[in-house]
Amino acid sequence: MRFESILFRRPGEGSGVGGLEEPDFFVDLNLDQVLRSITAGREQYELKQFFYAPLHEVDAVRYRHEVLRDLEKREVLDSVIRFAETMRQMREHVAQMQKLHYQLQKQAWFLDAVEIYCDAVRVLADELAARDVTSRGFRWLRYYLAEYVGCERFTLLAAETLALKEALAGIRYAVRINGPRVTVSRYEGEPDYSAEVEETFAKFKQGAVKSYLVKLAELGEMDHVEARIASLVAKLYPDVFGMLADYCTRHSDYLDQTIGRFDREVQFYLAYLELIGRFRAAGLPCCYPLVSAGSTEIAAEDTFDIALANKLVPGGGTVVTNDFYLQGPERVFVVSGPNNGGKTTFARTFGQLHYLASLGLLVPGGSARLFLPDRVYTHFEKEEDIETLRGKFEDELVRVHEILEQATADSVIVMNESFSSTTLNDALFVGTEVMRRILDLGCLGVYVTFVDEIASLSEATVSMVSQIVAENAAERTFKVQRKPADGLAYAWAIAEKYGLTYEHLLDRLD
Q: Which residues pair with 447 in a beta bridge?
């Protein structure tokens, strides 16, 4: 197959990515924070749209896993990073060229940019030919580059670029300055006295001396005197500068679109691997998930909240990991337990895992077997919006209704502390009805609640409880374990609501 994209295995597969906006659930799952961290410093590549476009076929996920495995080979990664850095230099040359005013200087910068491009492509083609790559993406890219560097268009471009550079480097001219008058002429073998001057004054040199040589700025705009001299030199050598002008016109589209696309798309992998590298350096595991579009039997070991870890790792903080699994008829985790015990973090982790897996990326954890969803839905507590003229409870009902209307059996739903603003009886009644709708759909999900009864509603619900330290009920372990609800979740919620928790009472006594 002819190479087109390092992200998408089939031609046209990523055609609609450019117009995508951030999904609604990104804020609830804190994926917006992760994405800002990942893309910082890479704004020029406009990577965010790629993270808004989940995949819906297992083989599409596998295609990206293959590419990532190749990029985890040090020699392949180094080759790609070198290529990306050289291409960045090329773009800097083009950007600088566009800021210049004098045509001859713009043409010279354009010539340099093309030279950098040709070198970058040739080196990448040579290095990939010698690398052990097994992914479809890199094998197709390797074949494409071999064809491209051998095609007539590229060989002529590279040869003409080199010839023109040599022709310009061979130009020699003399500048005579007499008061305000500057004369430019062809170099006719006039003597160069600089060596003799240095030799004459060398005998006066005593020890180390300060250098007063001034280095001309390479990126600066020519001043009017330099520009005038350049124009006079161009008149002295009209053939060479005529070829330069013609070259710039004919090769304005020198950048191959497929190679330019690879340069952008590969940053999607490089940016994410940088994040994963920081986690691994801190001893946190990350893995390639086994993804299925049919089996809802899922599991993960030593997994964690990627957004929380991204905050804690730089400061040396401890990241707590959790395990979970669903098997047979099980579909939904019902998570209960004391506040601030890790329930919301567990819910976010569940949603993050499935979405990251649908992007074809590694996920946090020692191992993971996940479902490939058609979409992720979240329902997290929000502040009242006075513009809707709805109370908090009514607003929750409206949002949950919208989710249930849109979700399918292939969706993932994450609900966190839903209906906590109402009474126990109302929360039990509404929560039970909502859970029955979710179970009727047959989709996977997490339901964080203080209503323990929902955990035993069906064989499809699995109770998970956030743990506390046995010797100190006020201390949380942030572990969430698979076990029957202990009946204390609502008591914790009431105590928290009225300021009667151990922590609140201790503060008052102090």
A: 334, 415
Domain of 162, in residue numbers: 55-171+237-271
For residue 498, the model assigns a pLDDT of: 59
Place of tokens 């979405």: 355
Q: Is 488 exposed, middle or buried (0-12, 13-18, 19+ CB in 10 A)?
A: middle
Residue 189 lies in a domain: no
Residue 409's nearest CA partner among 355, 459, 359, 371 is 371
Q: Report helix, strand or coil for 153.
A: helix
Tokens standing for 8? 């998408």
Does 277 fall in a domain?
no
Cα angle: 354, vertex 316, 506; to 5 degrees: 90
% helix / strand / coil in the chain, to the nearest 5? 55, 15, 35
Which CATH number characterizes residue 451's domain? 3.40.50.300
Q: In whole angstroms, what is the distance from residue 465 CA to residue 98 CA?
A: 61
Confidence of residue 389 (pLDDT cuts 50, 70, 90): very low
- Give per-residue pLDDT as tens, 16-39: 888 899 999 999 999 999 999 999
Pick the last residue of a domain from 225, 251, 271: 271
